[in-house]
Amino acid sequence: xxxxxxxxxxxxxxxxxxxxxxxxxxxxxxxxxxxxxxxxxxxxxxxxxxxxxxxxxxxxxxxxxxxxxxxxxxxxxxxxxxxxxxxxxxxxxxxxxxxxxxxxxxxxxxxxxxxxxxxxxxxxxxxxxxxxxxxxxxxxxxxxxxxxxxxxxxxxxxxxxxxxxxxxxxxxxxxxxxxxxxxxxxxxxxxxxxxxxxxxxxxxxxxxxxxxxxxxxxxxxxxxxxxxxxxxxxxxxxxxxxxxxxxxxxxxxxxxxxxxxxxxxxxxxxxxxxxxxxxxxxxxxxxxxxxxxxxxxxxxxxxxxx
Length: 306
Known about the structure:
The chain has helices at 15-27, 41-51, 69-72, 75-96, 134-146, 170-176, 190-202, 219-229, 241-245, 260-265, 274-292; strands at residues 5-9, 30-33, 55-58, 99-105, 152-157, 179-180, 207-210, 237-238. The chain is of the alpha/beta class. It has a domain at 5-162 and 187-215 and 253-274: NAD(P)-binding Rossmann-like Domain (Rossmann fold, 3-Layer(aba) Sandwich), CATH 3.40.50. The strands form two sheets. Strands 2-1-3-4-5-7 form a six-stranded parallel β-sheet, with helices on both faces. Strands 6-8 form a two-stranded parallel sheet. Helix 5 links the parallel strand 4 and strand 5 (152-157).
């Protein structure tokens, strides 16, 4: 039995946090779901002193509901969680010598003249170049500051995909849109990557990691796999980034992140390439939905089991 003691922040209502809890249960790990809020430093410190975790998994963060546009008009709350709260956790873990894993974002980069579509990907040493949304702006500021904390591992999650039609699932989001842009992006298939994050924490890895499956996949490729495996009648249309900008409040990040560092750090673990991973995810999604016959109300139900 491992002597690791985990404390999960953002585990009571957070999408990723609740997934991690189920994985820790399956491992028979010792864990505690935090009651304190990250922006309340005194409460957080008291809970850390009470639980005495060896590892903190920080999934707390504001992304906005239904999307990051919310952050544009709720800037103070976004700062409290994404900057003040995150730094509180990192700082206290550093003082108390606790390993800290932050589930962050890779949505802080945008293709540019050096990093073109299909060309050189962004690596862990690159500084954020996308501040087109207030959400991304706060995350970029925080990531830069976190480079100074030697006990912190920052995982850049991108466009996370799950095996169901959760509202937070990237596939769920684009399935509901009438039109989508078609740009290759790095993405994170959670069934592959979340177990790997626990291994990385247990090995006490620190620093920044592009926490994505290797490669890049476009919106159309994702929807083609959704149509192939989940809903054969599904159709969609495309529009340009310029056309998209007219119907959203904040800009959206598009980028490809380099997978070399994470693969080199885990030579004994094979991380599936993104096309393979998304296809397997769609197969599992169809099986889960057919078995449970459980579609969210705002998703077309054409793919229900006959």
